[in-house]
Prior knowledge:
alpha+beta
Amino acid sequence: xxxxxxxNKVLLRLREAQVSxxxxxxxxxxxxxxINEAKKEIEDAYDWIQLRTTLQITTAADDFRYTLTGAGDxxxxxxxxxxxxxxGVYKADYKFMNTVLTANGVSTGTPTYYDINGSTGGDPDxxxxxxxxxxxxxxxxxxxxxxxxxxxxxxxxxSHWPVILGAYMKALGERGEEGTTSYQTAAKAYFDALARxxxxxxxxxxxxxxxxVG
Length: 214
C-alpha cells in the first residue's frame, strides 16, 4: 500500500476529506507524520522478515575497521557469517576489543569477533578481531527498517493494517480523545492487530521461536 493510500485510509476513519497529496492540507500532513510514527513503532516491535537483508564486507589484510554501508542507525545484526571460512563471527565486549586491538603485537588471522565502534555517514563502523590477514567475505544478516515514507507512491514494507490503526489511534489522541471510548477502542484494535501480525510473522521463522534448556 502506498503512502497516500495509507493517509487516506486514516482520513476516512476520521471522517475527513480525502487528499491527492500527503501535504495537501496541514491535517493530512500531520496524518502522514502519524503514519511514519506508527510504522517505526511496529518495525521496532519484532524482527519482521520483510525487513531482513544481507550486507557484505570484504576485508583486506591488516585492516580491522569497516563501515557497514546501508545499515543506517536503526539496524539489528542477527548473524554474521564468514563465507570464506564458513564460520560465524561473534559479538565481543568492547573492553575486550579495545584491549586486544591496542596491544603490542596484535594478532592477525581469521576474524572471529566483532564490535560496533562509532559510525561513518550514519552507518555503523565494525571492528574485527583477529585483524584480518587477508581477504575474507563476511555476510551480515540484518534487520534494517525502511526509511520514512515521503513520496506519495512510496510503498510500505511491513503489514499496512497495524500502521493504519496505529496512526488512527494517534490522531484521536491528538484531538484530545484519550480516555474516551473511541480512543480506547482504537487502541485495542491497534494492539490486537500488532499482536496478530507478530503471530503471523513468527510462523515464517518457527525455528527462532523454539526455546531450549541447557
